[in-house]
């Protein structure tokens, strides 16, 4: 069965960096569309970044564009989110999501488009 496991979260000062990892078991990421979402307690889930099934097309929320980078390493079956110049408003539980059938660019921003989710990794940015 498919399992997504996030790691790499932690406590960091504003301006610092973290790299989140999402290891996928059970399916190859090479033909997947994958995304990162984030959610603060009691708040709605927010789109952060996505990467298309070809590994080249990427999408970012305006709030993280220029600071965050999503990438994929097929040899490790892992998707990453490199987060630079972190801000306190980036504080959230970050989730990895995947779907293994093609979806349209409009759908990559929509949580309901994804079939599989990790359990999240906490990112806390202090000021």
| Straight-line distance between termini | 41 Å
- List the total number of helices: 0
Oligomer: single chain
Mean pLDDT: 95
Could you list the spans in which at least 5 consecutive residues all have pLDDT below 50?
A: none
Radius of gyration: 13 Å
Most strands sheet: 7 strands, mixed
Structure summary, number of beta strands: 11
Helix content: under 10%
Tell me the overall shape.
globular
Strand portion, in percent?
A: over 45%
Question: Could you give the order of the helices and strands?
Answer: EEEEEEEEEEE
Structural class: mainly beta
Describe the structure.
With 127 residues, the chain is mainly β. It contains no helices and eleven strands. It has strands at 3-7, 10-13, 18-25, 33-39, 46-51, 58-60, 68-73, 78-83, 92-99, 116-117, 121-126. The strands form two sheets. Strands 2, 4, 5, 6, 9, 10 and 11 form a seven-stranded mixed sheet that branches. A four-stranded antiparallel sheet has the order 1-3-8-7, with no helix packed on it. A hairpin with a 6-residue loop joins strand 5 (46-51) and strand 6. The mean pLDDT is 95.
